[in-house]
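Entry 14. Ran structure prediction on the chain below.
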Amino acid sequence: MRKTMNILAASAFAAGTALSALPAAAAPTPASELSTGDAEELCSRLDEQFQFTMKFKADLPYADKARALHQSGVEKCEGGNPAEGVSDLRQSLKTMYVEPSTL
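Output, C-alpha cells:
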C-alpha cells in the first residue's frame, strides 16, 4: 500500500512538472503592430477561416452580426487598410465563438 502511494505521489509530481513546462499560448499581435505584409497575409487567413466556419454556423443567431463584421473587414483589407481589416475579421470570428488564426 505504501509503495502504491509513493508511486501515485511521484506520478502526480511528474505530471505537474510536465504541465508547468509547457509554453504558454502566444497572444495575437495587435493589428496596429502588424507590418503591412503580415496584415495582408492575416486578412487572407482570417477570411478563409471565416468562410470555413460559416459553413457550420450560418443559421445561428449571431451569424448576421459576424457577416457584417466580416464584410467590413474584407472591404478594409481590399481598400488598403489591412490592419483595420484584421481587427474586424478577428471580431467577426470571435462573434461566432471561434479563436481567430494568428501568424
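The mean pLDDT is 85. Will compare against last week's run tomorrow.
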